[in-house]
User: Fold these one by one.
Assistant:
Number 1:
Amino acid sequence: MTLTTAPTPSISDALETRITVRDFLDTPVPDDTLQAILSSAMRSPSGGNLQPWKVHVLRGEALARFTEVSVARTLAGETEEPTFRAYPSPLWEPHRSWRYKLGEDMYALLGIPRDDKAARVRWFAENARFFGAPVGMIITGDKRLEMPQHMDIGIILQSIMLLAREHGLHTAPQGWWRNWTKAAHEQLDIDDGHHVLVGLALGYANPDAPVNSLRADRANVTEMVKIYE
Ligand SMILES: Cc1cc2nc3c(=O)[nH]c(=O)nc-3n(C[C@H](O)[C@H](O)[C@H](O)COP(=O)(O)O)c2cc1C
């Protein structure tokens, strides 16, 4: 499916054209664009106005140093105890099938067979380099936060992703960074009491990358919404 790279004029357009981009151009994101996105995102609501997020933005040399370490560790097969498990285990239907289908579709586009472990590790290393994006974000939160504050983190994440579309940019939300909270503490100025909740890649999408043609399915409104009247 064709990738829409043009800036979007409305929230509906932003929602329709936002996808998780997993291959970025190295075109830099202008300073004022980044500032505009971040300052608008700060208007995101949060329960009790706690604003429980801390956004660590990496660019230029800092991004290169950070990703050099994470790529090397990923390729070496190193692991850390993740902040949180990515999904409940075992996962139940219909979520299990939806997750399976996404993986199948993505690895097919990447040309990586299910049993090619080495190629999969190389692909994980793409996560470790923010898929080549010129801006990487690590969002942390205090370990004492309750579940509702984690929902607030999701809201600011979505704000950044939709604002990015308004500027002709794309994003990749990355739970993958929850696996690297120790590494993030080593390299960034993160409070001791914080841990990594999610990461985000931000930049201009590579329109020629096959993986960026992935369109993840969605359930119908009737499956997910019950209207009472
Ligand atoms: C909180 C969150 C974490 C995610 N983590 C990853 C990740 O670590 N790596 C990845 O490739 N995609 C990740 N994704 C992307 C999802 O797979 C994607 O949003 C979903 O399949 C729907 O596809 P779409 O974003 O292209 O519409 C994440 C998405 C969200 C919302």
Number 2:
Amino acid sequence: MTKLITGQIQYNLFQLNETDGAHLNVDAYLLTGTKAALLIDTLQETEELYERVRSITDKPLEAVISHGHPDHAGKGLKQFHEAGVKIWMTEEDIRLYKELFGGEYPEEWFSELKDGQTFDLGGQVIETILLPGHTPGSAVFFDEKQQRLYSSDAAGSGQFWMQIPGCIPLHEYREHLASLVSRMDRYPKLRVYPGHRWQSDTQLNLQYLHDTLDLTDMILEGKDQGKDLVMPFHGEPLHYRECSYGMMKGYCYNPGNL
Ligand SMILES: [Zn+2]
């Protein structure tokens, strides 16, 4: 049984947290503008998300899915689809959602999310920036005016999963991350809102993105101070390494996928 907890971060920004009190703890974000609202991700098990969102806003609503993992594109999707809410996800991750994770809802439910696509909510304009890595079609969402970046799992949440099947080679991710970081450097007050906020006890920011990039470079240069670990993944042992640097407390990667 999971709980759905609403938190208000700012007058126009809500955190919707789903937790089972153990391993499952994931965040979606609801952005409310003067004209429209945008939901980022639909959590995993909870089926009351649509109702909860509608208790906060009655504005025209669209939903974006950051990537095709089941804890961000879960059972809540159904209610949004049935209510006629447009649901966006990148083509690459619609495929991943179906092939790798057996996503239960049909491709036709999704509209194809593109790099650079914007959502004008009135008072906040949200830009889609693709950041492939954690998945081939991961997207982050940027609000330039308010210096907010909604990053889901694309740069981790203080911990980072780059070790699982479906992640792209680390040197390719490095280039995508470097280009995001160089763009974000113009926004010193940047606040980063990730998909698993509980994994860090501090507000993630521009420094966090730099630490993640620097650690990616250390890994690629064979200079990380990490350790070898193993975890079960879909019933199989998954071997990986974990290392840390600065605000990045647990960067997990597959040494066979550099
Ligand atoms: Zn993920």
